[in-house]
Amino acid sequence: MADGVGSLSGWSADPTEVTSYVGRDAETGEARRLLEASSLVTLTGPGGVGKTRLAWRVAAAHREATADEVVFVSLAELREPALLVPTVANVLGFGDRSAKPAIEVVVEALQASRLLLVLDNCEHLVDSCAWFADTVVRACPQVTVLATSRQSLGVAGERVLPVPPLAIPEQGDSFERAVNDESVRLFVDRATAVAPSFRLTESDTEPLIRLCRRLDGLPLAIELAAVRARALSLRQLADRLDKQFSVLTKDRRGRPERHETMRALIDWSHDLCTGPERLLWARASVFSGSFDLDAAEQVCSGGELPREQVLEVVDGLLDKSILLREEYPGGVRYRMLESVREYGVDRLREADGTADLRKRHRDWFAELAGRYATEWLETDQLGWIGRLRREHANLRVALDHCTGTPEDAVVGLRMLRDVKEFWIVRGLNTEGRMWVRRLDEVAAAGVPERAHGLWLSGFLALVQGDMAAYRCMLDRAAAEAETSGDELAAAYVLHVRAYAALIGNDMPEASRLFGTAIDLFRAHGDEGADLWASYNHGLAVWLDGDIDRGRAVLAEAVERCERRGEVFWRGWALWSRAAAEYLQGDLSVASRCCEQVLRLHERVDDRVVVGFTLTVLAGCAARTGRPNRAAILQGAAMDVWRTVGAWPTRYEAFTEPLQTDTDTVTAALGWEVAIKEFADGAAMPIGDAIAYALEERSPGPRKQAAQVLTKRETEIAHVVAEGLTNQEIADRLGIARRTVDTHIDHILTKLGYSNRVQVATWVTRSADSA
Q1: pLDDT digits (tens, 9 = 90+) for 81-95
Q2: Which helix H or strand E contains 144, and what residues bound it?
Q3: Whole-angstrom Cα distance, residue 755 to residue 762?
Q4: In the beta sheet, which residues pair with residue 643?
Q5: Cross-strand pairs, 149
Q6: Residues 6+ apart with CB under 8 A from 176
Q7: Does an H or E element contain 71, and which?
Q8: pLDDT above 90 for 427
Q9: How much is the pTM?
Q10: In terms of Cα–Cα distance, which of 386, 194, 370, 397 is closest to 284?
Q11: CA–CA separation, 288 and 394 (whole Å)
């Protein structure tokens, strides 16, 4: 799984704040109790009340008590409901290489998992989150969902826990009693952080109580106020807050509502900012998630905020806790808490500056995409991919802006073309296709950029196995390229068609098309595309029967990648050499190439190539008299394939060899031992599987073979053992015949079987050993 699993990383606030967070013991305990009673718990409350940090405390306590995996998905930056499931799948580390709906891929991958899934900031996607959470908890009995939202999800069986403000002292409380209230403890904790000399004395009791009561116990309000302890005494701070709040309570009975309390605190912080700080606050709200100084200087400068002053103004907003600082490899980024950003959005709208700032934001990220395209092979490739991952939310906002007018759509199509490797390398197939569709619908007829968007969409559809969409997109791309006379776009169309021929085991056609595409790529100086096509060309030539030439083409592709410091296509070029050697050549060379691929994976997070590599290594082990190792690697490979939503048998050249290797292993070990070894491999986390493949560790403790199958697959396996046909199984279980076919294919693949009799035997033996 990707970042966010187990380590509680990838969250929406500074992780150090979790350890120093004050109070919430009662709420943490109640949330834990509700999680034991229900598969869906939602923490509700207004912005600034502390829902996110409470969710983190609950998740950490849950993991410590149960050892379950924990995945934290922040949705504050997500604006497209259609991207909810792909976003969750990406954080989980699940692939997007299937034509099946993403929800089916996620459900299938989670059915056998023990997991706490935290969905943070659901309120702006409440309908989508409700549908997703309900689907997951119904289909995945060991998955629990913890959501945070300003409103409940409204799902049957949902338990709702309103998150109250922190406890506040009562008027007249003693100093000893007041300092034990949660709101006071948080204020002291934060005030001490900004002013180390800050100390409470008994004479501070009255202004302290007045202050905390004014702030309604809202954690974000307390933190914003605590920043002022650096410049004001406690009494001065309380007095100034009284004046600020008098505007709200004028002509009204009682105290302001809590959301107005929060607004008043942010208003006060805004009033205390300088003019340039207010301007930057409003303008920076156009960013989604975090941003760096270069972006702030380009997008937010101008008029009363000269570019050369932006750094100084950023420092002022950091000092006032309006901006928060985050460190990443190679740089520093800034972000706002969502309530603070929303305030900035309102201020920008009031100044009628939203349209201009969104365009400037889009232009900056269009320029960034162009730099990426130019420097992809020239500079730090891994650094560029890391940067685009951090800018993903901003790329989405920029592309969304491009869907507004035909002129903007052309810019968006150009951006997609410039960062095409990002969608491909990161496996963002559904999202990439969505952006092409939306931009294609808006762009005017005849724009040359359309051909590049269409071939990219066609390639992503091909990877997912959506052949109808692949053919439609490629035909349209070819027609657009011909109309505009764009030879480079035409070359990409040939390349994608060649890839389809490679998958379909039509090696003569694949070899011919790749060769033609490479000639065009070289004529136009597109070296990235040349490298991409070259390793595929080498594999096709080899499998078409010209082993010596195929070996030479692949060796040259690897050498060119190494010389340039290129890493992504190098991994695939090495795998292509390994695959060709496995199918028709030297198994020792195949194994060595696979080892190089797996070591590259430490730098490049690409599960698909790992799945292919473990599959080839399993075949090599089967053919060199190591059946136990082969079975374990087969299990590990199948588990990786399950998480990426695809299967190696889609590639027809592998279908027969994989079946032969499976038969060899089961004949050598017997079914019972083979199943046990396969189950051990399937149970290994991907890091352990890679270490085992590199012979750096032994397999973990054995688990029962039944754990390889999901609950539904186990049910179907038992019905198979009764001798029922697929249609009869569908009728009994009330599901579609096609669904039964798919489940049985998965059962055969996971257990390493080739027919239904073997499944029946496995069911009988499992029952005997129970």
Answers
A1: 999 999 998 888 787
A2: strand 143-149
A3: 11
A4: none
A5: 44
A6: none
A7: strand 69-74
A8: no
A9: 0.83
A10: 397
A11: 5
Would you call 147 helix, strand, or coil by DSSP? strand
Q: Which of 620, 640, 639 is nearest to 630 (CA)?
A: 620
pLDDT score of 708: 62
User: Confidence band (pLDDT; 50, 70, 90) for 212?
Assistant: confident
172: left (phi over 0), alpha (psi -120 to 50) or beta: left
**Strand-pair partners of 383:** none
Nearest to 194 by CA among 232, 166, 137: 232
Structure tokens at 228: 């002022």
Place of tokens 């912005």: 47
β-strand partners of 323: none
Question: What is the predicted pLDDT for the residue at 592?
Answer: 96
Whole-number average pLDDT of the chain: 87
Q: Is the pLDDT of residue 400 over 50?
A: yes
Cβ neighbors of 381 (< 8 A, separation 6 or more) are 565, 566, 567, 568
C-alpha distances out from residue 437 to 38, 461, 591, Å? 39, 12, 41
In this predicted structure, the answer to whether residue 719 has a pLDDT above a threshold of 80 is yes
**pLDDT at residue 252 is higher than 50:** no
pLDDT at 66: 81
Residue 119, helix vs strand vs coil: strand
Beta 291-292 vs 69-74: how paired, if at all? unpaired
The span from the CA of 636 to the CA of 641, in Å, is 9
How far CA 439 is from CA of 102, 297, 412, 452, 560, in Å, comes to 22, 28, 7, 12, 35
How many angstroms separate the CA atoms of 455 and 510, rounded? 17
> Residues for the chain: how many in total?
770
C-alpha angle with apex 478: 475 to 483, nearest 5 degrees? 125
- The whole-number pLDDT of residue 766 equals 65
In terms of DSSP H, where are the helices of 250-288?
258-271, 275-284
Nearest CA to 655 among 507, 505, 511, 539? Answer: 505
**CA 769 distance to own-chain centroid:** 41
The pLDDT score that the predictor gives to residue 704 is 44
**Token pair of 239, please?**
């007095």
Helical ranges in 703-736 per DSSP H? 711-721, 726-733
CB 16 within 8 A of CB 104: no
What does each C-alpha distance from 22 to 183, 222, 410, 495 come to in angstroms?
8, 12, 51, 58
Using DSSP's 3-state secondary structure scheme, residue 666 falls into: helix
703 pLDDT band, cuts 50/70/90, is very low
679: amino acid identity, one letter: A
DSSP 526: -
Nearest residue to 588 via CA among 623, 540, 615:
623
Nearest to 148 by CA among 260, 73, 259, 257: 73
- 416 burial (CB, 10 Å; 0-12 / 13-18 / 19+) is buried
User: Average pLDDT of 653-670?
Assistant: 92
DSSP for 300-341, written as a single string = H-BTTB-GGGHHHHHHHHHHTTSSEEEEETTEEEEE--HHHH
- CB-CB contact of 390 with 329 (8 Å): no
Q: In the chain, pLDDT over 90 holds for what percent of residues?
A: 54
**pLDDT at 572 (0 to 100):** 94
**Residues 417, 432 contacting (CB under 8 angstroms):** no
pLDDT at site 741: 75
pLDDT at 715 over 70: yes
Burial call 673-696: b when 16+ CB within 10 Å, e when fewer = ebbbbbbbbbbbebebbbebbeee
- Based on its alpha-carbon atoms, the radius of gyration of the chain, rounded to whole angstroms, reads 29
Sheet holding 324-328, edge to edge: 291-292, 331-335, 324-328
pLDDT, tens only, 326-380:
888 778 999 998 889 999 999 999 998 899 999 999 999 999 999 999 988 877 8
**pLDDT reading at 65 higher than 80:** yes
